[in-house]
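Two proteins were folded this term; both appear here.
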Amino acid sequence: MRIQILRKKAWLLLFLGGAMTVQAQQPRFYKDIQRFKQADSIQSPPKNAVLFIGSSSFTMWKDVQDYFPSHRILNRGFGGSTLPDLIHYFNDIVVPYHPKQIVIYCGENDLAASDTVSGLTVAQRFITLFGMIREKYPRVPVLYISMKPSPSREHLMLKMDKGNYTIKELLKKDKQSAFLDVYHLMVDDNGKPREELFREDMLHMNRNGYAIWQKAFEPLLK
């Protein structure tokens, strides 16, 4: 009897160890991507929609469709993501949807993740993503939203400005693309972040911030 109990414990430990190994092997944001796939299996995503991809500024814009009732919006932002994450999951968050326009907000987390990441690094990562989009969709319009000046990341604003400028200059060369500068819409006359546009964490926007984005986005959505 004691041997049987020991055997059961051994099998249980082996099973738990295997489960922990599988979980440890899961890439970043695996569960977020699986939720997107599950949602698509329950209800087919709209065809020919404006696709939003990027980090938490899109993830937390849960009622984004209400802001743009004349457009079909498909939001596939996942919080905390960086440009390498968008590149990694390109075949999951872009390719299945055949969008009529791709709107990107990403880069801010890249800078926050490491002191070694510069504005130029962000621009180079964006070039990689943009190249993937152009290879798959040569004519689909791309709209890049500048990195916003979050008060909690004020120390990164110089890097943001450099990255924003470099990406802006790059997109000037592509007639189907546009750069939207929300950075300067969200600072005061002294160049400081406008805290009234943000939640208590001074990182994520409140409705006032999204109202600014709505007004700026509307003329550029296809």
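Next, the second protein.
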Amino acid sequence: MKSAIFFVAIFAISFTLAGCGGKSNELNPEQEPAAGTNAPPAPPPGMADFKVDMAPANIALGHATYHLTCAPCHGEGGKGDGPAAVALNPKPRDHTNGAYMDKLTNAHLLQVIKQGGASFGYPGMPGQPQLVDDTVKNVIAFVRSLSPTYKQ
């Protein structure tokens, strides 16, 4: 029984580590992305940018989802320092970096969360297609709340 639990724990950790990461040892470099790599694309057809409801209840719901799906890589506070980040290359994005995050549209964030980061130059960032759009919007509200400079 103990060996089965150990195997499941190792599998879960391996799966989490395989789901994030990519190519740079630097933790959230401050440089602008190279043209064509992970610059925000135009919103998908029929998905113009939208406002996120920054109500405290929505931020709390977003934090609960973030805790389960994002924090293993991005960390509880969104600084890109989650327990799995040690093994990731590139390091997960620092969601508290307003200089970078405030430039991204809500539609872009929704697309990255739902589809993953492969189309933006981060093939290790897993998509979360199981999350419904309202849940993703709450996650976006939480991520936006981490930026000291975000203004909707």
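Residues 3-37 have pLDDT under 50 and may be disordered. The chain has one domain: 2-23+39-146. These notes refer to the second protein only.
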